[in-house]
Every structure is written in structure tokens, then in C-alpha cells.
Write a structure and sequence with these properties.
The protein is of the alpha/beta class and about 600 residues long. It has two domains: about 5-350, ABC transporter type 1, transmembrane domain (ABC transporter transmembrane region fold), CATH 1.20.1560; about 375-450 and about 530-610, Rossmann fold, CATH 3.40.50.300. Helices cover about 65% and strands about 10% of the residues. It has 22 helices and ten strands. It has helices spanning about 5-10, 15-35, 40-45, 70-85, 90-140, 140-145, 150-170, 170-190, 195-200, 205-240, 245-250, 250-305, 310-350, 415-420, 445-450, 465-470, 475-485, 490-495, 515-525, 545-555, 590-600, 600-610, and strands at about 375-380, 390-400, 400-405, 430-435, 435, 450-455, 530-535, 560-565, 575-580, 585-590. It has a six-stranded mixed β-sheet with strand order 6-7-8-3-9-10, with helices on both faces. A four-stranded antiparallel β-sheet has the order 2-1-4-5, with helices on one face. It is elongated. About 35% of the residues are buried. The mean pLDDT is about 80.
Length: about 600
């Protein structure tokens, strides 16, 4: 989707603020012209030129549209002179100043309301954009997060969207205000002096061309700067997670050099971007100043030599022209800022437009339970034709049975678990639940059937209670405590400072490895899914913790369909079927006793572990 079209789609729910802002900015522009125009009769009274009006007859409009504004000016001067004759020049001057003051007050009130409404418009779109990106993070396949660096994604949802807000949305005030101001002021300038206005407009095509050239190069620099900022975030994230390794290997010098290279690269692009952005304002200001000097020369000729212009008209003209310079400068700056924001918007769009790959078909089949079995039918999976992970893999897991996958690293065990969870879709064949391809099932319903406990316990910076409750948000406290007891976790949780309400820190780092794993198991137990996937759930634990966790896993797997991946073969001896894999193929399968008596690959693996 094109960037501007995306912004327009996000803007639709907030259009009322934009239309309201445009209305008040139009009123502001009109009052801005009026407040400056009221200075004309004030100067006329002060310079005495208003007294030159013939008060013996009322001015009459001859019907020509081009002469209408001249007629209005003569009529105003006629009324002013009548009042001067009756009340005196000083009193009339006081009334005119009061009218001008009210006009200035109203125009600034309208300006504030217009800007306030635009803030609602801007912040609302930014919130929706950030929410859409976070929602997309939740939908993205696991493969996306293996390809992309987490720090770069953090940069996109924070810095890039922040740049969109400041660069594009922040410039909306000027993009909306400036055209109204420019148009209304230009009309007034034409009324005051068409010749002088046409002469002054020669600068604007030059200014527009120069600003567009600056804007194009600004966009390229901004994109590169944001990319480097993403690399910087990734490096910081890795440093915070790897502090022990950095210290033990004295790797701080390596990382310092890497960080300096990244920041120096970012500095180069950021300086280039800022240099081009800052060039827009002084350039437009210089061109405006040159135009003012040319106007002064041209008007001076009309006043001093030709006597075709009155001094107060020139003064008001210059005042009005200065009114147009400021919005013109703001508009040029806004164009430059938008170009910079577009680079960030493109990086945001890359995420929002990313192909989900794992998607639901139209009208998917709902599912609520596993009734018969899980079948892997001629499964093939590969990232490319030269990197085949699985080929012609077949396996059936009957309901209520536990099937264990064993084998060396890289044999395809975890890939099978990821395919069953539909983190990826198979390249060939199909995985069927009760005879139905899982691609045809409603994804949310299907995932509701699954529970998973992985080698690395994934916990959140929250209380123990809320971490377990994630398995079933509507669960009661009794259900949560019962799940913790099944997972052999209730005893240690009760001894924590605040019991179940204890915050366990980032990634659960306040708990030991075994405690974290048992909380993860309690979460899976609470969900109570009919299908359980255990991916090396005990491999990172010490012997004592493993005993507690293994006991909890056995309780959880009772009467449940389970796919277990294990390196420690002692944990899967009770499995109904053990499948031995090598390079994506099944080389042996059977019970523990059957495989051990075969004196094949499985027995060699058992003996190696016993020897260790």
C-alpha cells in the first residue's frame, strides 16, 4: 500500500477534527487579513489622506466586479470622514484601534482552536498507526522474528512512528494553515495593488523548485538514518541480554567499536538530513527578503516618481506581504519534514505490508476438540531447494497417546513441533487433525487446542498469578492454585514475598530455572488443551529441578495427546511411541523396550547418555 494512502486510511475515523480545524483556520485566515486591512484606514487617519475623500456625495458602485473592492474602500473612507467631522479624528482613531484589537483577539482564538483540533487528529492517527503495528507483530509468523532483529522492530514502532508523527502529522498544522493564509493574503494583495503583487510573485516558482530538490535528498538520508538507528537498538538489546558473556570474555572492546561504528554511521546520515532540512528555512527567508527589497524599489518608484500609490497602501502591502512570507516559509519547512517522515513511513509500511504466510483461508472450518488422531502425511519442509529439513515424513499420533521425538540436533524435531503449532506451513504434504488439513481449520480455534512448554521459559514482567492466568484469562484463583499444584509450583510460590502476587521480573529472572519452568507448565495446565507440545522442556535443568518438572509433566500428560521432543532420553521412557530421527527421516520407532532390544541407533544414544 502506498504511504500516503495508508495515512488517509488511518485518518478516516478522525476526519471530524480535520474538517473542524480547516473551518477555524479559514476563519483565522480571513480575520488575519481583516486585522491587517483595518490598519489602512488607521494610517489614512494618521497621515491625513482620509480627509481627501469627498463627503458631499456617497460613493456608488458602477457594477463592475473589478471595481467592487475599490468601491468598498471608498465607502469605508467616506464613513470614517463623516465620523471624523462629527466626533473628531482622535475619537475615530480610538474606535478603529478597538475594532482592530478585537479582530486580532478573534483571529488568535480561532488559530488556537484550529491547532487544538489538529492535535487530536494527529495524535489519534499516530495512536492507531502504532496499535496497527503492534497488532501486526502479534500476527506475524515466527519466521519473521528469526529473519529480523528485535532492536530494529523496536526502532520502527518507537522512533519511526515518532518520526511519522513529528515529520508528517506534525507538519499538518502548517500544511492546513499555510494555503489558507497564502490564498487569502494573495487576494488582498491583488486588491491593494495588482501590479505590485504580480511583480512580487516571481520568487515563488524558484522557491518551490529549490525546496523540492532539497526534499528528495532529505528522504534518502532520513531512511538511512532510521536504518542505522534500528541497528543501534539491536546492538543495545544484545548487550543488555549478554552482559555475563561480555564480561567473562572481555568483549567490551569489540562491542564498543561496533557501537561506535553504528553511531558514527547514524551521525553521518543524521547530519546530512538536518543540513538539508535546515537549508529550506534560510533559503526561503533570503528569497523573501530579496523580494521585499525589490517590492520596495518598485513601490518607491510609483510613490516618488509616478505618484500612483499612496504611502499607507504601500505600508499595508508590505505588512500583508510579510504575512504571506511566514506561512510560505512554514509550508516549505513542512514539505521538507514530510519528506523525512515519508522515509520512516516506508519502514513502518514494510512491517504492515509483510506477507503473513500463515493465513486463514476464507470460511475456515471451526474445531473444538481432538477426536481421533493427528497425522503427518508425506510432510516436506525447506527454506529453499538446497536446504531441505524434512522430506516424505509420515507419522500418526492417536488421541491420548504420547509420542516422543529423539535424535541429534538438526534432525528436524523442533521443525515438526513448529509445523504442528502452525508457526510455519508445510512446503509439501499436509498435517491433518481428524482427517482435516490444519490449513483449513480456523486458526484461533486450532491454537486453542494446543499447549506448549519450551526449553526456554517465556515469562512476562508481571506477577506469578498473571503469568499463569495467561493460559486461561477467565480462570478463578482456585483454578490457578490447582494448576500450580499439578505443576509442583505451589510450594515455592507460597514462599515468595507476596505469594502469587510477587512480580517475577524481566523474563522471570527473579526465579530459578526450575521454578520458571514449573510456572510455564502451570500456565499450560490451566489452559488444559487436548494437544500438548513439549520441546526439550527439561534439558536446561539441574537433576533436582528436572525431577520436579518431570513429575509435573507426567501429571499434565495423563490422558492427553502429547508430542515430546527430548535430548535426555530418561524423560521419555514412558512414552507410548518413540520416534528416532536423522536428517529429517525416521530411522527407528517403537517403545523404549522395543528400541533398546534392537541394539540400533536408539540404544547407542541411551548408552552414550548413561556413559556421560
Amino acid at each position: 500500500m502506498k504511504p500516503f494512502r495508508r495515512i488517509l486510511n488511518f485518518a478516516k475515523p478522525h476526519q471530524k477534527y480535520l474538517w473542524g480545524s480547516m473551518l477555524f483556520n479559514l476563519l483565522y485566515s480571513l480575520l488575519n487579513v481583516f486585522s491587517v486591512a483595518t490598519m489602512l484606514p488607521i494610517l489614512g487617519v494618521m497621515f491625513g489622506t482620509a480627509s481627501e475623500i469627498d463627503t458631499s456625495k456617497i460613493p456608488v458602485w458602477n457594477g463592475e466586479f473589478g471595481k467592487y473592492f475599490s468601491y468598498l474602500k471608498d465607502l469605508v473612507y467616506y464613513k470614517i470622514q463623516i465620523n471624523i467631522d462629527e466626533h473628531g479624528a482622535v475619537n475615530v482613531l480610538a474606535v478603529l484601534c478597538g475594532i482592530t484589537a478585537v479582530a486580532f483577539l478573534l483571529r488568535n482564538i480561532f488559530r488556537y482552536i484550529g491547532a487544538f483540533l489538529l492535535v487530536n487528529y494527529r495524535v489519534g492517527i499516530t495512536r492507531d498507526l502504532r496499535t496497527a503495528m503492534y497488532d501486526k507483530f502479534l500476527k506475524l509468523p515466527v519466521s519473521f522474528f528469526t529473519e529480523k532483529r528485535k532492536g530494529d522492530m523496536m526502532s520502527r514502532i518507537s522512533n519511526d512512528i515518532g518520526s511519522v508523527e513529528s515529520g508528517i502529522m506534525g507538519s499538518l498544522v502548517d500544511v492546513v494553515n499555510a494555503p489558507f493564509m497564502i490564498i487569502t493574503t494573495l487576494i488582498t494583495l491583488f486588491i491593494l495593488s495588482p501590479q505590485l503583487t504580480l511583480f512580487s510573485l516571481i520568487v515563488f516558482p524558484i522557491m518551490a523548485w529549490l525546496i523540492s530538490r532539497i526534499g528528495k535528498s532529505l528522504k534518502r538520508k532520513a531512511y538511512s538514518a532510521q536504518e542505522e538507528l534500528g541497528n543501534l537498538f539491536s546492538l543495545v538489546d544484545e548487550t543488555l541480554k549478554s552482559s555475563k558473556i561480555i564480561k567473562i570474555f572481555n568483549a567490551d572492546k569489540i562491542l564498543k567499536n561496533r557501537f561506535r561504528e553504528t553511531t558514527n554511521s547514524w551521525k553521518k546520515f543524521a547530519i546530512g538530513m538536518s543540513r538539508r532540512r535546515e537549508l529550506a528555512s534560510p533559503m526561503s527567508e533570503f528569497l523573501g527578503s530579496v523580494t521585499i527589497l525589490l517590492i520596495t524599489w518598485f513601490a518607491g518608484k510609483q510613490i516618488l516618481q509616478e505618484h500612483t500609490m499612496k504611502p499607507e497602501i504601500f505600508l499595508v502591502f508590505v505588512g500583508m506581504f510579510f504575512q504571506i512570507l511566514d506561512p510560505a516559509k512554514k509550508l516549505s519547512n513542512a514539505v521538507s519534514s514530510i519528506q523525512g517522515g515519508l522515509a520512516s513511513l516506508e519502514r513502518v509500511s514494510e512491517v504492515l505490508d509483510y506477507d503473513l504466510k500463515v493465513q486463514e483461508i476464507e470460511n475456515p472450518i471451526p474445531i473444538s476438540d481432538l477426536k481421533q488422531n493427528i497425522e503427518f502425511k508425506n510432510i516436506g519442509f525447506y527454506y529453499d531447494k538446497d536446504n531441505i529439513i524434512l522430506k516424505n515424513f509420515n507419522l500418526t499420533i492417536p488421541k491420548g497417546k504420547t509420542v516422543a521425538l529423539v535424535g541429534q540436533s538438526g534432525s528436524g524435531k523442533t521443525t515438526l513441533a513448529n509445523l504442528l503449532a502452525r508457526f510455519y506451513d508445510v512446503s509439501e504434504g499436509e498435517i491433518a487433525i481428524d482427517g482435516i488439513d490444519i490449513k483449513h481449520l480456523k486458526l484461533k480455534d486450532y491454537r486453542h487446542l494446543l499447549g506448549m512448554v519450551t526449553q526456554e521459559s517465556v515469562l512476562f514482567n508481571d506477577s506469578v498469578y498473571n503469568n499463569i492466568r495467561m493460559g486461561k484469562p477467565e480462570a478463578t484463583q482456585e483454578e490457578i492454585v490447582h494448576a500450580a499444584k499439578i505443576a509442583n509450583a505451589d510450594a515455592f510460590i507460597s514462599q515468595l514475598p507476596d505469594g502469587y502476587d510477587t512480580n517475577i521480573g524481566d523474563d522471570g529472572n527473579k526465579l530459578s530455572g526450575g521454578q520458571k519452568q514449573r510456572v510455564s507448565i502451570a500456565r499450560a495446565v490451566l489452559k488444559n488443551p487436548p494437544i500438548m507440545i513439549l520441546d526439550e522442556a527439561t534439558s536446561a535443568l539441574d537433576t533436582e529441578s528436572e525431577k520436579f518438572v518431570q513429575d509435573a509433566l507426567e501429571k499434565m500428560m495423563e490422558n492427553r495427546t502429547s508430542l515430546v521432543i527430548a535430548h535426555r532420553l530418561s524423560t521419555i521412557q514412558k512414552a507410548d511411541l518413540i520416534v528416532v530421527m536423522e536428517r529429517g527421516n525416521i530411522v527407528e520407532q517403537g517403545t523404549h523396550q522395543e528400541l533398546f532390544s534392537k541394539n540400533g541407533v536408539y540404544r547407542k544414544l541411551v548408552e552414550l547418555q548413561n556413559f556421560e
